[in-house]
């Protein structure tokens, strides 16, 4: 698991592989705040590389929630990862864009091979994001992201932000232990009331088209249907909405998905031993589907567990096919 460290001080003096810059979309105007400090201390090499990006791959600038890397110039780092945070709005939930800044920055860090990354609190300055929720979104995003980065440093510019970050990280750590302890021995204790979609010895080839087991929780079936092939990733808030922001329900769903993932994986191994590669592929696909659902639930759990986390408003962006489908499926 990625280690999160909290540092109060100057992000431009952090000795890490990559420093994340809270940039503006043009990538060129240094101005004040983190962006200006990084470009002043890093020297002209950073600005020149940003100009090259604008002249080639990013003629319209960098989109909100996206990330791109440049050299670090005279900074005590190898790279600067630039990301554009969203401005805060009372009328629109833009928290998914904010979390995307952290996810995409970590993805770029993985591409670079960076093992240590320093983040500022994105959007918490001139963009007006409330400090408490900016901290929640930052920690939730990092904890929910799969990454090879070993150490993430959150660099706070004052004592208040640093203390708030420490409390939030501690809360996540305690919560992580309580969740992971349920699955410490691999497969959770068998719940005989949990229906299985795995094949049984009584299955016959002339069965009619298989229907979803009516005993499976509807919310869990919804998640499986929305992500049957992994082509469209659900956001943490979409998953939380499907689950009614119910922490206990999500914990139950986690147990079911872990059981099913292991069961289908065992059937895939049996099919391989019997030389039935086609059946093995089917079972492996099913196991991976349950595994994806498990990770989606874990991401949602980070947000549900934290008091004060922003809830997706009914009028929040419904721009994706998944969001529009959820709007039709979920009760008002």
TrEMBL record:
NCBIfam families reported for this sequence: PRK00431.1-6 (NF001664)
Region described as Disordered: 186-219
Bias-annotated ranges (Acidic residues): 201-214
Organism this protein belongs to: Rhodococcus spongiicola
SUPFAM superfamilies given in the database record: Macro domain-like
Lineage: Bacteria, Bacillati, Actinomycetota, Actinomycetes, Mycobacteriales
Domain Macro span(s) in chain numbering: 1-173
Superkingdom of the organism of origin: Bacteria
Protein name: O-acetyl-ADP-ribose deacetylase
InterPro entries documented for this protein: Macro_dom (IPR002589), Macro_dom-like (IPR043472), TY-Chap_C (IPR054342)
Cited Pfam families: Chap-C, Macro
